[in-house]
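Subject: sequence -> structure tokens, single chain

Hey, anyone have a minute? Need the predicted structure for the following. Not urgent.
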Amino acid sequence: MTWEPQPDGLSQIITLLKQSQSTDNMIQRAVQMKLEELNQYPDFNNYLIYVLTKLTSEDEPTRSLSGLILKNNIRIHGTQLQPAIIEYIKQECLMALGDPSPLIRATAGILITTIANKGGLQNWPELLPTLCDMLDSQDYSVCEGAFGALQKICEDSADTLDSSALNRPLNIMIPKFLQFFRHSSPKIRSNAIACINQFIINRTQALMVHIDTFIENLFHLSSDDDREVRKNVCRGLVMLLDVRMDRLMPHMNSIIEYMLIRTQDSDETSLEACEFWLTLAEQTICKEVLTPHLPRLVPVLVRGMKYCDIDIIILKGDVEEDEMIPDREEDIKPRFHKSRTHTQKPSIGAAASSSGGGDGAVRSMEGNDDDEDIDDPYDEMDDDSNLSDWNLRKCSAAALDVLANVFKDDFLPILLPILKETLFHEEWVIKESGILALGAIAEGCMSGMVPHLPELIPYLIVCLSDKKALVRSITCWTLSRYAHWVVSQPHDQYLKPLMKELLKRILDANKRVQEAACSAFATLEEEACTELVPYLGFILDTLVFAFRKYQHKNLLILYDAIGTLADSVGHHLNKPEYISMLMPPLIEKWNNLKDEDKDLFPLLECLSSVATALHSGFLPYSEPVYRRCISLIQQTLNQDLASTTSPGQFEQPDKDFMIVALDLLSGLAEGLDCYIESLVSSSNIMQLLYQCMQDSMPEVRQSSFALLGDLTKACFQHVHPHIADFLPILGHNLNPEYISVCNNATWAIGEISIKLMEDTKPYIPMVLPPLIEIINNTNTPKTLLENTAITIGRLGLVCPVEVAPSLQQFVRQWCSSLRNIRDNEEKDSAFRGMCQMITVNPVGVVPDFIFFCDAAASWMTPKNDLHEMLQKILHGFKMQVGEENWSRFVEQFPPQLSERLAVMYRI
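Reply:
Had a minute. Here:
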């Protein structure tokens, strides 16, 4: 196709392109409107490609901009463009890959990838062969332009390139790329490695065939003069470590030596190389291969943790007081609400003892198997919009952390002398890196550090008032990593002085320090729990004062600290003097926030924890809070309906508002208990709940089921009339694909059955089979197993005749799941159900009786009548089998179990 522009049209477009480079917002908007208007004309895109590829009289930025506008048009309207125009653009782009200007070549490459992505590579069959042919061109610009385009295609379409749909082009491309590893141009060498690197992680077959040649060539380029080449070599080696360790093993010593040098480079290569230590730490051979190199590696990592001058400028490290400067909205990261999940607390003797709170719903991420969701501590460390990118400092600290976890206390002989030198250094930047290193090793080297902590913790507490804000903020972080030890010592020695200083830092004049102190204090709260009760007045004074002092960003972190405090001290917060301090500022914020303001999320989460902790103390505030939650749910459901019925006219709502409101209602139901009855009776909450339970979004269902369980406990009279509607929905959600949804549905079924008693009978055939399937699935996570076992036990309690015949199918897994949770009401009702079922079907338990013995022994202090039931079953079994068989049976028990049964049940 040949096409020529009209001179008027061309000059109009050139003027527009020039104007769009203006910094004036008004001009920008006018240009935007004009561009959208021009999109109505089919040949507008022809003009754009013409300016990019043919109009050499224009300056490069204007030509490139023309190409980028065309790229957006293709991305948005590509499917509506006439085939002839697309063909014209394709041929022009391929020609422009050889343009003398690197900027124009790169823009043409971006356009080519956009067309390939939009229309699919299979619809442009000649593209890859053409680009590969261009690599052989004697004209450097053509070769480099084609490689640039190929690199973008490999990045965007690695999977497609390895598919039979395209006839496996990689079989030709990879050997081709390998030929260019020794090209005279560093740019082309770098492109060749970058292209192949895209195929390492997926173990692409076409690359695996040539893996030895690839590795040999990488080694050849390891000492290349060019920075980009070295960076790509490091990146390739780090990925190979994960994928083809077998091939790297013979060269491991030289690779470690090489990475040691590269980690000290003064450019971005150092970050790529530093990733090597993080990846190596995950490999089983790490200890063996790295031990000889540790004395050289550790100092390199600690040096890498030092702020460089540019970091300090970006972090405004010389600005000590900035608390009066308002936050920029773009510096505030979006927050994600974590929906409620009902979990069990482990028993005191079980693997982990968790403290505080009753057995209400605790928060955990959707789909997370365990009760914790672990943030990367190094992502939060220097939390600044410009520096929150992964950098050498964070990578070095993370590497020190994982290696400390590999080497444990063997790490300390090398590290302690370095810490001594850095921690007490008069240069603040070095001292700061030492404090960071001390925090990084906390987890891995805790036992070896204990003898040094009586000296180090007081020193760190002094560093909390250092004159440099960046030293004060990192000290908060490091102290939080040792909070567990601090709490375990006599309070007067460490906890009190630490708390006093941390609370001062919460009111620091520097915003970064406020943020670090608030986060560290939340960690201390989680560790100390009710140990903080004697200091509550003092703590609340500070947190409430911070409300008046904080700018927007830190206010959101303050809500977390208050919510965590409520979770940690529970009902001890329910004192008139505490309530009168804490509630007015929270309610004032609550009243000032609009319904569509996302700051409601952290505030609602905080209020949910506070309502749960305050119990009846929250009553005076409950009505407006309850009404607003109902209104948020109603609004979201209405918006959802509108956007589904007329998609073009109404936007989809942000369902997080509804999820957070459901969770706060759960907190209210759990905290107020039967006092919530009057609020429930005067609202349409049951109708709203019925809709939310059927929402397409898993998190909405998850929170609905948590609320249903809590309302069942608090005011069943209002739930009862709707059971025939609710139970089938719960049964339908017993699908472990959505772990947290399934977990909360299971828990709610158990709560309902306890209230429904024998009226649960008609629903047993619907819910029991999926529950048995879940408890027998080897992939079911611990939390879901425990809740499933409790619910099966409860169903057996209310309908033993219906559930007992299936006993043999679940009794072993049931006993194994419930031996690890602490004594509580849920465990009690589940065990009563098990005793009832054994009475109905004693044969069902015989093959797995040893598991039942173990579960019975897991009780610390069962109620008298339950104790009697368990004892009766144990003695009954002994009588049934006779003394001799019983003795043989008991010989299989671990000694602890025999002792425990003898002490507890006299058997």
